[in-house]
Protein: Ribonuclease Z
Amino acid sequence: MDIIFLGTSSGTPTKTRNLSGVALRKAGSKPWFLIDCGEGTQHRLLHTNLSLNSLQAVCITHVHGDHCYGLPGLLASATMSGRSAALTIIGPAAIREFIEATQKATQLRLSYPVNFVDVAGMSGVFDGDGFDIDAVALSHRVPSFAYVFVETGLSRKLDVTRLKADAIESGPVWGQLQRGEDVILPDGRVICSRDYLLEVRKPRKVIISGDNDTPALLAESAKSAHVLVHEATYTEAVAEKVGAGPRHSSAKAVAQFAAEAAIANLILTHFSPRYKDSGGSGLTIGDIELEARTCYAGNLLLANDLDMFHLDRAGTLIRR
Amino acid sequence: MDIIFLGTSSGTPTKTRNLSGVALRKAGSKPWFLIDCGEGTQHRLLHTNLSLNSLQAVCITHVHGDHCYGLPGLLASATMSGRSAALTIIGPAAIREFIEATQKATQLRLSYPVNFVDVAGMSGVFDGDGFDIDAVALSHRVPSFAYVFVETGLSRKLDVTRLKADAIESGPVWGQLQRGEDVILPDGRVICSRDYLLEVRKPRKVIISGDNDTPALLAESAKSAHVLVHEATYTEAVAEKVGAGPRHSSAKAVAQFAAEAAIANLILTHFSPRYKDSGGSGLTIGDIELEARTCYAGNLLLANDLDMFHLDRAGTLIRR
Structure:
């Protein structure tokens, strides 16, 4: 799986960091998912090999402009590139209002249907073509959500030991069970495929979180997650200075949570523009990294725009 | 006067060209005006010395997304940079609907008041702090306008010959007339200041046009204009191929008009992304330039993103 960052700044863009946007796809596969779409997301896409025609769904974490103002332009450009396949947009209901009002006021007609899914009313997981997508409610100034992607369609192997123990003879029946078909044996027994299939490996699970001041809300989802992508807008010192109003997380708060939840890979993003990339006497992204490292001994990565992180089948995450 | 291009592509951005946006200011002066605000305009501003706090007014030519989808993000960033001064937005009434609907859906609260001016109902010129701003209706798929900027506040000199001919003695009265005050003479005559003041020079006039398939609609305004900024989306050959549907101008059509109207300086912009900056066997911006040059012998310039053009007091326009 690839996680590609299209923007890593919070609130306003900087010369090097755009507003929030993350792309997720199975490595080597064209279909992809977009989580958040700040202004300028379509501009960043021009520097990747992601195509608007292969975009499966857009998941918006919350209604703040730095997470969704790129959506009308992206939808318009998909029309200009000739897209015809339906596009799913999952997000707060107000995202639908925003898009529909924009279409009406600016006479934007799309060449494809849009299926809006209200994340607050999403019942169970959404079947996202290679992924199950689930949402977790967070804590922010407005309703905000994390999207949890779990890969689906993994091949499974037959549990031969159990087949033999239950006296199910090898033959065409084994093939049927392997393909996921249930079978009635000549002796009348009904055999369920899922009882005789073993996971080849644990499906990979990636959490991409929206703005959130309470990382512990992700505790349940984090249990089996391989990667957590979470905002770390400030260091603790700045978070204390700005007060609780903005309702963001500090690097310390996220790193402590990731350590307690034993998450193997943590990617921080959504940095306040007051943190510069490097140098000078002012605040830097390095300050955020240092604070997080003191609390978390796992694989910590700080995202830059256009970074691509690859999660292999063994659950190892590396920057490509 | 400086004319700074923030975007020069039509429809969709390219790696080198953003969507429509032009900044206008008096040289050496902080206040500035923005004409159109495609997505990513605020990103381009980061590479200029234009400040959102000094922005006097935004003029939107028409409602198409590539001319206005950057507006919500720009307004939000002005709030984050602490702006308190009122901002004027001149444009079609639907721009107000777009902004207000976006504010409501995305909970965008601004730190300053916005004064919307419906360009279709704008009575006479708008007093724009150093400029008179007028609008001219164009021809496009939706109502589209050109904005005409004429500098104001030029110093004027006394018409001494006329003062003497009318037997108005030099003294304090001459000073009052110079300052623009009307005067009653001891002999009872009422003297109007404007009758005794001469223009030091012709005020500079710049036309910045929206999308338009009929350049001749600008004939009246063009009479005394120093600069025309106009779209040249295609060459004639491509314009014929795409047909009349998009309702844009070819380079030839604009250049022929500028030649007939005897406009001294013509800047072309809003190029279809099919025209590359250079090289290869495909279409290039050079094709648009070549076509325009064959019809127009004046000062022809093709805009690139972040180009700054300086119009001096004598009406000479150069690329800085």
Notes: The mean pLDDT of chain B is 96. Chain B touches chain A at residues 11-15, 18-19, 39-40, 42-43, 46-47, 63-66, 68-70, 72-73, 76-77, 80-81, 94-95, 97-98, 101-102, 104-108, 142 (CB under 8 Å).
